Amino acid sequence: SGLPESIIAAACARSGQRVLHVDSRNYYGGNWASFSFSGLLSWIKENQQKTDTSDEGEGWRKLILENEEAISLSKKDKTIQHVEDFCYGDQDSAEDVEEAGALSKLPGFGASAAEGIAQESEKESPPGEMKSPPGEMESPPLEKAPGTEPASAREGNDTEMSSENGSSPGTASGESTLVLGKTEAAPSEVTAKAPKPIAYSQIVREGRRFNIDLVSKLLYSRGLLIELLIKSNVSRYAEFKNATRILAFREGKVEQVPCSRADVFNSRQLTMVEKRMLMKFLTFCLDYEQHPDEYQGYENSTFAQYLRTQKLTPSLQHFILHSIAMVSETDSSTLEGLQATKKFLQCLGRYGNTPFLFPLYGQGEIPQCFCRMCAVFGGIYCLRHPVQCLVVDRESGRCKAIVDHFGQRISANYFIVEDSYLSESTCTNVCYRQISRAVLITDQSVLNTDSEQQVSILTVPPVDLGKPAVCVIELCSSTMTCMKDTYLVHLTCPSTKTAREDLEPVVQKLFNLNTEKETENEELEKPRVLWAVYFNMRDSSGVEKNSYSGLPSNVYVCSGPDSALGNDCAVKQAETIFQDMFPTEDFCPAPPNPEDIIYDEDEIAPEESEFSNSAEAKADSSAEESGSGGGAAVKKEDNED
């Protein structure tokens, strides 16, 4: 139930298809999930032990007929490797400490977009949306094992602001809206001057305050995912917070990068000449396609080499390359750098002063939002439901069914499988990349300012040419991903070694890992790491379908998370697969408004006569009639876009 699969499930259900969405895990999101602190500890233990799931017997093979063959699926997820966790805080006894507010068994707690998703298909469906017939499309209970669920319990959401027309700088007239959480810090969070050292037991006790993402990403304000959230109206299931600042690491120091026009002219770190240079170059990047003579002859050069020819100072070159374009110094061409810079600039001002948004409660909320949309339109969700094999018809070569771990044979027309479910025999010719990940809990920000509630993105350039840069995303407590007085820091880069070998040198540059009380003055200025985990994650993006051996034409493979900052790869993949299955259907259209539903008079006449004395009952009757899908059509206004 990762992001691409969840988007496809929502699109299929919205187009009227019957969808069964199963996951062998006991939580939503796969490698896109978010965990509470205790849930992450359970996930770490599970991946460190690497116990193979024993085959429960070959009884399911009796369901395979003579003219059929089975493609066995993997029983163990092998996408996570080299998991190492460390506690740097005060390691007082935390053996008997439990998470406060253990509400995992109550509906609505745990995964805010997924807990009780069967109930949501009834509660959230407005009049005019399709509902499942009673007893036909009901989901099984979705209770989660304590300590393993993505914990994103809703709290403190009564204050919010909406990015409506005119409410955010640069928002185009008539655009749809996203709900943005407030960026101001609560008074209680800024008055503490000398907080006490945070003990490990306190982190465990406040574990449900954490929503720790396995994959670290931000949403470009004009990226494909934001456009899809708005188009499909799935954005109503989530809230977002602006990334408040772009940082750079240069000459051993962290500094803020001016990226908007106001930031550039208010910057004290740039001279007046540098401000003019920067504005002139950024203005050119916005419409570089109209001036090919400016970069003619540099198409085959790297972007870094091109910047050196533009009479930019070294500091400006560093800011543009690593903090605005955010491309590789050695591998990215001039056109790739110009395109990335233009994308950055186009996203400025739509919802805030930076191009990025972050979903409150973590990136793991986004797949769950699309799962909710699928459930609203009749999709069935089953967690803890492994699948033994795909059943292929030898004559047609198409997949006919699956056999699950209960020995049930379930038929379908199309099958979408996440890469990690495929066995080694199917992936013999596949060459995977790896992503190095680290998650830190720290006691202060990498760059302290007057406001403690900052969401920051920082790119740390490599020391050695040819090595990848490290993307650092720092989240404050107002993102609902960590407890008060702490910060959650995500580090990501393409792997060259193990995650710890790739990322620990960067961690040592930015943070203090010394557990002793007496440290040098230089170390005291750095934020202190309280806890950390390193792991490598498989990057299966970019693998062509023909690389997999023996897959039928109606079986589609979704990749896991990629190393890019945005989510464009997942959205493109989902749309490509959906359009291949249903080329005439619209991809994730918005649900119809209740007032746009026209009912067949013959269908609703008996209802009107029966409930003529009750307007409220009549309205309920109409809603039920529309939910069954009978005799309903969506009217189109003459002035509709």
From TrEMBL:
UniProt key word Cell cycle: no
Region listing for Disordered, in residue ranges: 116-175, 590-641
UniProt feature, compositional bias: Acidic residues: 597-610
UniProt-recorded Gene Ontology molecular function terms: GDP-dissociation inhibitor activity; GTPase activator activity; transferase activity
Transmembrane portions of the chain: none
A Pfam family per the record: RAE1_2_domI_C
Subcellular localization, as worded in the UniProt entry: Cytoplasm, Cytosol
Regions of compositional bias (Polar residues) in chain numbering: 159-175
Location (main, coarse): cytoplasm
Recorded family membership: Belongs to the Rab GDI family.
Record-given protein name: RAE2 geranylgeranyltransferase
Organism in which the protein naturally occurs: Galbula dea
